[in-house]
Write a structure and sequence with these properties.
This protein has 541 residues and is mainly α. The protein has one domain. The protein is 62% helix and 0% strand. It has 26 helices and no strands. It is globular, with a radius of gyration of 25 Å.
Length: 541
């Protein structure tokens, strides 16, 4: 065989067998070594540095994150998150005292779906989706809410006991939301890898203050980020189960499965040349290649496929009682968010606010077409980007596509966008500004609804249109920033030089065992992973 040029130390580290998988699976508390130091936001972000003045100022040049930075993040994040959530409860104290009476609940900006659904009688008097509720002689109607939300509130009502009130169920929802928020902060810190302090962007956001208690969206948000953490640990089925549960509670969560499949497809495609060239890298032009030296065939059932199948099974099982008992109700619950016409918060509502004639059919068709086109555009971006995009970035883009094209965009949707934005775009000024816009949009929605109940009061239609446009622009800005760091990986502050894991090792949310194994096999045969742009610039190659 031809002699082989020895690789430099960085390249040897990149292809050391088993090294890639180990790096991909390490938690933030293991990333305080010299090769992957924990990022301190007060050193990197101007707004974080300025805000740190109340606790002694930014970290000094010689400061070290300590042996267990993750524990400090969890303590600080839990305390901050629970404090913000407690403030959200205080803001809703008026509604608790008046049992969410109308229109005061809009005037005091303390509206919540939970007491509204409970007080309607759909949950305390009938079994949701299986029994009708309504005035005698009207035939009644079925609950119009995602399966998971209906089953959850019905179960909380049973837990509250006989004669439970809307306030009792709301209080239980707050306790469940507190647990979900703690888990959300912890999962965000772990998925963030060497940037665990980015979890504070979630804990202290205005979105938590104004939107977290509007519904039960804290739970699907925690499930989505928990699924990302399970994926980073190589637990495909667990990730699928969590995403299935999240979809039962909040239907747009299914696009995170699509994001996972797209990113794994791109990373597997990037790894294929390394696999095919592994044997030829050590063989000369006239040498025969031993069949034992050929890289093994890829796994038939990819981990992403296992995740998707697990999510599908959980989602189907969650709606199975309804599907068996009444398939029309099942279909209606699945398609309700699409065929119900323009709802509050959506771009399609602008037509009604500005007196532009629209029809439900036209809105539905246009919404579906734009959603499909948006998903296709994101898929093309993933496959054509200079490097494999990070999973949270792709998930954020797909969620934004679905939300921006949906017939309804309620305020609580921001709760799921929040952790994905924190993992994708951990810029304090950007996310704080977006959070303020979301809080203002939520308040504007309640004041507009108050004006519908009390003429000549509340927010006029033109004012609500301004609020909606501001919110939509803020979401588009998040999407454009995500596209920018996808097309220009060097601008992504989360990425670190891929000197240890080969393709995609700079995505702490997705180790991709199959790709890592492929890189390891290439290393055993002498091939090296291509250096990233930053590493090339440092070495002068």
């Amino acid at each position: 065989m031809s002699p082989q040029v020895p690789a430099d130390d960085g390249a040897r580290r990149a292809v050391r067998p088993g090294r890639a998988a180990d790096v991909g699976h390490r938690d933030a508390d293991e990333l305080d070594g010299a090769d992957a130091p924990v990022v301190l936001p007060t050193r990197e972000d101007p707004l974080a540095a300025a805000a740190s003045a109340v606790v002694g100022g930014p970290a000094g040049r010689r400061a070290r994150p300590g042996r267990d930075p993750l524990r400090a993040v969890l303590v600080a994040g839990t305390a901050l998150g629970l404090a913000v959530l407690a403030a959200a409860v205080v803001l809703r104290d008026y509604c608790r005292g008046t049992v969410w009476s109308t229109p005061e609940r809009f005037l005091h900006a303390c509206y919540s779906d939970v007491p509204t659904i409970w007080s309607s009688g759909y949950l305390d008097r009938v079994v949701p989706y299986l029994e009708r509720f309504g005035a005698p002689g009207t035939g009644g109607t079925y609950l119009d809410a995602p399966f998971g939300q209906g089953w959850l509130l019905w179960g909380l009502g049973r837990l509250a006991g006989e004669g439970a009130t809307a306030t009792d169920v709301f209080d239980l929802t707050v306790l469940l939301g507190a647990v979900a928020l703690v888990l959300l902060v912890a999962a965000t810190a772990r998925v963030a890898g060497r940037r665990p302090w980015d979890a504070l962007l979630v804990a202290g956001s205005p979105v938590v203050l104004c939107c977290a208690l509007v519904g039960t969206t804290l739970l699907p948000a925690a499930l989505v980020v928990g699924a990302l953490w399970a994926t980073s640990r190589g637990r495909a089925v667990t990730s699928g189960v969590l995403l299935g549960l999240a979809t039962l509670l909040w239907q747009p969560a299914f696009v995170v499965v699509v994001a996972l499949l797209l990113v794994r497809l791109r990373r597997r495609r990037d790894a294929t040349p390394a696999d095919d060239g592994a044997a030829s890298a050590v063989a000369g032009p006239g040498d025969d290649i031993d069949e034992e030296q050929r890289p093994a065939a890829p796994v038939v059932v990819d981990a992403g496929v296992r995740t998707a199948l697990a999510a599908l099974v959980v989602w189907v099982v969650g709606g199975l009682p309804v599907l068996v008992d009444n398939s029309s109700v099942w279909l209606g619950a699945v398609t309700a968010r699409v065929v119900n016409g323009p709802g509050y918060g959506s771009v399609w509502l602008l037509g009604r606010l500005l007196d532009v004639p629209t029809s439900v059919a036209a809105t539905t068709a246009t919404s579906l077409l734009l959603a499909v086109a948006g998903v296709a555009a994101v898929a093309l971006l993933v496959l054509r980007a200079p490097r494999a995009p990070r999973l949270p970035v792709v998930a954020l883009l797909l969620v934004l596509v679905v939300l921006l094209t949906a017939p309804a965009l309620p305020p609580q949707a921001a709760v799921v966008v929040l952790p994905l934005a924190a993992l994708s775009l951990p810029r304090w000024r950007l996310l704080l500004a977006w959070g303020v816009v979301e809080a203002a949009a939520a308040t504007g929605t309640w004041l507009y609804l108050y004006g519908l109940e009390v003429p000549e009061r509340g927010l006029p239609e033109w004012g609500y249109a301004v609020v909606l446009v501001a919110r939509l622009v803020a979401l588009v800005v998040l999407g454009l920033r995500a596209v920018d760091i996808t097309l220009h990986p060097g601008r992504d502050v989360v990425r670190r030089p891929a000197v240890e894991g080969g393709p995609g090792a700079d995505d702490p949310a997705l180790p991709d065992d199959e790709v890592d194994d492929a890189v390891g096999r290439a290393g055993r045969h002498g091939a090296t992973a291509p250096p990233d742009d930053a590493a090339t610039a440092r070495t002068g190659a």
